[in-house]
Amino acid sequence: MKNIALTLSLLFSFCMLLAQKKLTVHADKIIAPVSPTMWGIFFEDINFGADGGLYAEMIKNRSFEFEFPMTGWKEIKKDASGKILIQNTGGTRSTRYAQLTVNANNGGYGFSNEGFRGMGFQKGATYNFSINAKKNSGDVKLRIEAVNSAGTKIGEATLDKISTDWQSQTISLTTTDTAMKGKLNVWFEGIGEVVVKRVSLFPKNTWKERTNGMRSDLVQLLADMKPGFLRFPGGCIVEGRDLTNRYQWKQTVGAVDERKTMVNRWNMEFRHKPTPDYYQSFGLGFFEYFQLSEDIGAEPLPILNCGMACQFNSGEVVAMNELDPYVQDALDLIEFANGDVTTNWGKLRADMGHPAPFNLKYLGIGNEQWDEQYIQRYAAFHKILKQKYPEIKLISSVGPSPDGRLFDYAWKELKTLNADIVDEHYYAKPEWFYQHVGRYDNYDRQGPKIFAGEYAAQSKGIAQVSNQNNWQCALAEAAFMTGLERNADVVTMASYAPLFAHADAWQWSPDLIWFDNLRSYGTPNYYVQKLFATNKGTHLVTISENGEAVKGKDSVYASSVLDKQSGEVIVKIVNASANEVAVETMIAGVKPSGKQARLFTISSTDKETVNSFEAPQAVAPLTEMAAVKKNVIAITLKPMSLTVIRIPVK
Ligand code: AHR
């Protein structure tokens, strides 16, 4: 009797642990194509994402354009004397110069650059140094030294001649040791006067070994996601704290030395994270963003200022009768991206090395704007852009909140205007993401499409310093993303935000990818994004349990697509509970073509788990195989897991 009771109680506990679910994929009932742009990337120059991050330039303030021209620089001398004078020639482009009077017959005089929170040097790697300078008088040689944090030299190169005309010269050095927080000493030797316009140092190993290139490890992480689009350059950076400091794409193209440095709006935005040395050199400008999009197979999605500064800051607007130059910027950008090489802006693109068009199809008007002032300005852009370029899909904003009066107002107006794609943002606690898995189930199918343009679960609260990129947040996002996918007939684009953060110089957390001057890693959130994007499929089909969408019963969430290219049904299942869940998935309407399915699983039983430089893949996908019996795949979902199943079908 005792034994029976024990067996029953064990059985009972087992049933409690292992919920049983039977799901059906109706693979022959296609609801809609999945947009090729479904899962993409949001890039903004926040957290040292561009300068000091993706943009591989290692010299901070390379043209002395920061408010304090010697920021990042330090005078150095050895058995010598000298003087550094900053000149400004005036004008709208880059205009500052450093004039060095050098008295170093038996020693050296010059300056040292600290990089972006130090410079990362890899043992055995080659670095290309370049200087745009001229000699006014005398005879001066140049010697550069890479040094580690203790000041020990780990690489050196010399340049014997500085011409009396402006000249950009390049030399290379190879480092004999690794340094995480090194710096570069630039020594002038001899007696004379030199004027320096720009000092630059790039690793040779940039992405595709381009000069003025990007960090290859960071681009690789992006390319691995196979993103459908790349949104750039933000974010609030598009808006600026005031209109004078808004992002203007025309200032970011053409000769790199002429792009005028500007303060980065994130430098002092958060009192708890001031970064007064955060500026935008625009070495990574619109041409480079277009090229990056092309390199990683993503549709370029530029966002332009719509005549409004950030409404969280000054909220300045340009008067409606002065909006034309802003609209003209948009027209010119389309010409820059797509125009024939005989057009003004198309020619500039060709001169910069890309005669073929970039094939721009999407354009964002304003970032996170709201209220009447936005709708008026958007309407003006919409009218002209639709007349001239009806094929370009415009992205419009409904503000920073996912609901509320301003959100509802903007939606109503944008529908009336026949807007193409509306950009919704949600930064919220993980619970919000579970609660809103069905957010788009009842959205109007005849109205504008949705761009879930910025979202991220916040473990503590919006942009709190203690926010973590932990598994709890990533799993909540995964559950929410099954809801986005289930509504792929109306949601056509989605991207996590922000993208990058420098571990020693960030302002906003959480972020998708963290890096320092030598290393980088994807967060659990990154691996969720990557699993969705690399298993995007081509057509949406339903997955159900007893005829109902799988959206939270027993803490299980699921969506399904067909990949007509590879001939597979793809199922994504989130088990948000702390227990295992046994799931049988039946494929209806088509026949499995093999006896095995591929499984990709991310899980952790500890919701606090994060990835780190030391353990970059603490939470990352594992690949396994599962048996397909007739048309059924029976698997046990791990506790707190995301599982992607790929089933080959006929
Ligand atoms: O992603 C960080 C910021 O959040 C973006 O710049 C802005 O659009 C949003 O408020």
Description:
By secondary structure, the chain is an alpha/beta fold. 18% of the residues lie in helices and 36% in strands. It has 10 helices and 31 strands. The protein has a 9-stranded mixed beta barrel with strand order 1-23-25-26-31-28-29-30-27. It has an 8-stranded parallel beta sheet with strand order 2-11-14-15-16-17-18-19. Strands 3, 4, 5, 6, 7, 8, 9 and 10 form an 8-stranded antiparallel beta sheet that branches. Strand 21 (513-515) and strand 22 (520-522) form a beta hairpin. It is globular, with a radius of gyration of 27 Å. The two termini are 53 Å apart. The structure holds alpha-L-arabinofuranose. Alpha-L-arabinofuranose (AHR) is lined by residues 44, 46, 234-236, 367-368, 400, 454, 497-498, 508.
Outline of this structure?
The protein is an alpha/beta fold. Helices cover 18% and strands 36% of the residues. A nine-stranded mixed barrel has the order 1-23-25-26-31-28-29-30-27. The chain has an eight-stranded parallel beta sheet with strand order 2-11-14-15-16-17-18-19.
Task: Produce the secondary structure layout.
Elements: H1 2-17, E1 19-33, E2 41-42, E3 73-78, E4 81-88, E5 96-113, E6 119-121, E7 126-147, E8 153-159, E9 167-174, E10 179-203, H2 216-224, E11 229-232, E12 262-263, E13 279-280, H3 286-295, E14 299-304, H4 324-338, H5 344-351, E15 362-365, H6 371-388, E16 393-397, H7 405-416, E17 421-428, H8 430-435, E18 449-457, H9 471-486, E19 491-496, E20 500-502, E21 513-515, E22 520-522, H10 524-533, E23 539-545, E24 548-549, E25 556-563, E26 568-575, E27 581-588, E28 596-603, E29 622-629, E30 632-637, E31 641-648
Parallel strand pairs: 1-27, 2-11, 11-14, 14-15, 15-16, 16-17, 17-18, 18-19, 20-21
Antiparallel strand pairs: 1-23, 3-5, 4-5, 5-10, 6-10, 7-8, 7-9, 7-10, 12-13, 21-22, 23-24, 23-25, 25-26, 26-31, 27-30, 28-29, 28-31, 29-30
The structure holds alpha-L-arabinofuranose (AHR).
The site of alpha-L-arabinofuranose (AHR) has 12 residues, from loops.
